[in-house]
Amino acid sequence: MSSTRTLIRGGLVITAADEIHADVLVEDGRIAALAAHGSDAAGAWTAGRIIEAAGKYVIPGGVDAHTHMELPFGGTFASDTFETGTRAAAWGGTTTIVDFAVQSVGHSLREGLDAWYAKADGNCAIDYGFHMILSDVHQSSLKEMDRLVEEGITSFKLFMAYPGVFYSDDGQILRAMQRSSANGGLIMMHAENGIAIDVLVEQALAEGRTDPRHHGEVRKVLLEAEATHRAIQLARVAGAPLYIVHVSAGEAVAEIAAARDKGLPVFGETCPQYLFLSTDNLAEPGFEGAKYVCSTPLRPREHQAALWRGLRTDDLQVVSTDHCPFCFTGQKELGRGDFSKIPNGLPGVENRMDLLHQAVLDGHITRRRWIEIACATPARMFGLYPKKGTIAPGADADVVIYDPGAEQIISAETHHMNVDYSAYEGRKITGRVETVLSRGDVVIDQREFTGRAGHGQYVPRGTCQYLA
Question: What is the pLDDT of residue 4?
C-alpha cells in the first residue's frame, strides 16, 4: 500500500487557522492524516515517496479565483492558453484557478460556457472551475442562471464598465441580482462607471492626451467608488450577496467597509498589481507604461496603505490576480498613439503567492493571513472548501513545499507565463516554491516541472460558504 502514498516530513504546516510542525500523509490523491513531527503516529507511517520538508513551509496550493486564459479582448486574445497559463500557475504554487467563461451578446450562456469547456478540456496542468460572464441580461439568460448554478457554475460576473462590450445597465444588474438572490449564486461586479469613463476617454484623446498614463487618469478613483456604492445599493434592493472584483482605490474599500459594518454580505477582492505597483509604472517613459494598463487601473501609491489595511481588517477578503496577459510586442502596441486601444490586462498568475509571502516579510500581513487570502477564503467564497484551500484529512492533496529563505529576482527571462515582459521585472523577493503536488501528483519537483497538460480536472463548485 505504501507505494501509492507520499509522506511530507518535517515541515511547518501553515493553514489559515494553524501553524504546526507536522508530517503530512498523502494517499489516493487526498490528505490522509497529519501527525506531530517525531510522534509515534508519524513514525509508524510508510510511504513510497518521502519529501523532506525540514526548514520549509508546507502550505495548501493557492486558489486563484480570477484568471482570464485565452480571453478575447480589444481585437486580440490573452497570450496565455489554458495549457501555458495553468503550468505557470503551478510554478507559482497555485493549484486551482477559477476562470471566466464569456457569454457574447446575442448568444446564450450555454454557448459561452461550452466554448470555455472546450478550450480548457485536456489542456490544464492544475484543477480549474468557471465563473460566467453575463453580457446580455434578458429573460432567457436569467433562466439559464438557475441551470448553471445546479451545474456548479455558482458565480456570475457583470460589468458596469465597457459599454458596447460587456456593459450592463442598472436595470439588468438588478434583475441578475434578484435571480442570484433566489438561486444561491454570487454576483461578481466590475465596478467602474463606464458611461462616464467613455466621456473622459473621448475628451482626453481629443486634447491629444494619448499616452498610457492617461488610461489611469480618465478611469478616476471617484468613478470606481461611485460604481461600488451603486452596486452595493442595488444588491441591497435585490437582497443579494455581492463580490467586488479588483478593488484598487481607498475610496472603494471605504464603500465596502461601510456596507460590511452594516452586516451586509458584501465582499471585496484586490490584486497584487494594486498592492505593489502604481501610477508611477503607467507613467514610465516612452510607451513602457502600456505594460501596466489594466482596469481598474493602477492608482497613486498612497492607495496601497488602504488596500493592505483592508486585507488586515477583513474588509477585503481575497487576493486574486485578474491574470490577463498581452505581449508588449504586437498586442500592447495596438494602442500606440491611443491609450484606449491598449488591451487591458497584466500577467501575474505565477507571481501571486511569492509576492504575498514578501508582504509577510514586509510586515503587511501574517503568515496565516497569507494562506487565508490566497487559498482558504477564495476556496470558501466560491464553494471549493474544504476540498481546496486547506491541509486537513479528506482535502485534495494540493500541497506546496515552500522555501521561505530562497531569494529570487522576478523576470520575464525566467517566468513561465506566455508573455514577453514581467510586470515585476527586476524585483528582488524572498521565498520560493520548491515542490508542488496537485491531487497527490508531483507537478513541480524541486524546481522542475513534472506535470502534464490534461492532469487538471474541471471542478464543479458549491455556492458561497459565507452566506447564512
Answer: 86
